[in-house]
C-alpha cells in the first residue's frame, strides 16, 4: 500500500488540564494526537511545541511503526522537557512519510467527561 | 447529479468505549462514520482497520446505495473479525465513487453523553 | 471585499434529536449550519437532504444577505417538507457565491448540554 | 523555519454565551481562536466580525509575535466595539504571514462544561 496523508501537520489550541477526576491512566485529562502510518516504512515524527511567552521547545522525536497507529499523549513528553500543564501551547508535527493526524482532548476535571476531537491541519509544503 | 466528495478518506483516533449506560441501540457508546453517496451509482466502501500492535485487519466491505446516506457503526463490523473494544484504532476508507465522510463518537459511559464529530480527512490521491 | 469561501459544501452526519429539556428556542436540541456570506451579493443557498431509505428531498432555498451571517436550523425547514426528527440525514449545500459553512449540533435531551461543531466539507468543483 | 499555514481564515458559528458558572477567567464561557505563528516575523492579525442583522464591524488588530502562539478571546475584543454576547457572529481573519488557526468554545453555563473545537477554514486566496 502506498503511504497516504501529509508530511507536515499543525494544531494551535493545545492545553493539558491540571485537575482531573478520572482513573489513571485511561480517564486522566489529556491532550493527544493519533498518528496513522499506512506506509511500509517506519515514520519518525518530530514535534515542536510553541508557547505564548517563551521560545519553541523541541524537537520531540517519536517512532510510529509501518502500518501502525500510535497515540501520543502530550502529558508523556518529557525530553527535552515536559510540556507544562495548564499552559496554552501549539504544535508543529513533521514526518518523513505521509501520515494522518487527529488531535483530541479529554477533560475529566469538570462535572462531565468532555471530549473533543478534530483532524489536525495539514500544512501544505510551500514549493 | 454528479458525484461529489472524494474517494479516499481516513481518520486516526478511533476507539469504541466498552462501558455505557445508554439504552440499546440508540444511546449505546459507539464510533461511527456517516457516508454520503450523492452519485447515481452504488458505492462499495472498503474499510481497513489499523491497530497499535498488530497488522491491519480488513477489508470490510459495505454497500452505500446511490443517492443515499449510510451510517456505519464500528461496533457492528464482524467480518473478517470484530473491531475490538477499548483499543485504539485508525481507519482507511476507500470507495469506487466520490463520497463525503464524517466521523463521530458517542460516549455514554461517563457522567454525561459526550458526542464529538469531525469531517474525516480526505486523502488526496498521489498522482 | 471579494467573496471568500466555496460554493459547494456537504456534511453527512445529520440527526435532529427528538427529546430535549432546554427552553425554547435557544436551548432546544437542534442541528444547524452557520453560513457566512462575505460578498457584496446576496447568496441563494440550496439545500438537498439525503436519507438512508428514501430518495433525496429538496431543494430548500434560503437567502443569506450580502455581508451577513445566517444560521439555518434544520428543525425549521418545512417546505417542500419538514426534516424528520430522529432520522439520520446528510446535506448537500450549493450557492451562487462563495460562502463559509460550519455545522453544529446542540443536544439537550441527555444529562448534559452537549455541543459539537465542525467546519463542513468544501466540495471541490470537478472541472 | 519557514512560515507554515495560511494567511486567510474564517469561521461562521461564533456565539459568546452570556450565562456561566465558571471561575474567572479560566472557566468563564467564551469563544476563542488560537493563532500559531511559526514564522520569524511578527503577525498582524486583522479580524472582521459579521452579524445577522447589521453591517460588519472591524477591523480588530492583534499582534502575534514571531514563533509564538496567542489565544484571542472574543470576549476581550473592545475596539472598535465589544463583540455582543448571545448573538450569532462570524469572523474573517487575515494576516500578513501564514498562521494556523483553531476555533474553540467553552460553555460553562449549562449542567456541564462543554468544550468544542475545530480547525478554522483556510480560505484559499483566489488568484
From TrEMBL, chains A, B, C, D:
Superkingdom is: Bacteria
Q: Name one Pfam family in it.
A: ASRT
**Which protein, by its recorded name, is this?**
Sensory rhodopsin transducer
